[in-house]
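hey so i finally got around to running the thing on that chain from the lab meeting. sorry it took forever, my laptop kept dying and i had to restart like 3 times. anyway pasting the input first so we r on the same page abt which one it is
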Amino acid sequence: LEANGWACHITDSVTRSGKLQCEVKTHDLRLLKPFIGMESLHLPPMQLSANAQMRGDNYALKGTLNEGPGTVNLNAHLQLAKMAYNAEVDIKDLQLHHFLPNDSIYELSGWLKAEGRGTDLLSKHTSLRAQTGIEHFRYSQWNVDSVYVGANLKQGKGFVELNSQNELLDINACVDVEVDRKVTNANFSMDLRKIN
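ok and heres what got predicted. didnt touch it at all, straight out
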């Protein structure tokens, strides 16, 4: 573990600022298993690089996790006063089998983008736009590729879309909802061409 950084005026929400950079390399982490409570989970050697910054009520985090041939990149921002956020995650060739060797899940490549304001999904004041995709995921002998999910929520009107085109599931589906402290209206449509 290597870390360095600084912080100023930490108790002042307007003028506080700081920066932290760290590099973490892990080796044998079997001793953590009893604390995690998942005996089937394996923690392989990994390397994490992270850079966190704060200025007033604005926070930013960039990080990269490397495990074998796999990488996970994260870039996130939060404006606390407005509860406004955005985040991007990019996963390339992450070997899930290295973490769960007793399961039949293997390499994963995909991405996630999200931005919004507020966290109460039943409020008309909350907005959200999110997209995620699986470029490649191998489960047992199946390739679960080309999966896309998109979601939008603004002024109490929401939309979720699923598009999957692979050997397990070939489908287009969407849900329209209206919310005002509860779901007041919902419509669902689906074009299912194949399910295995």
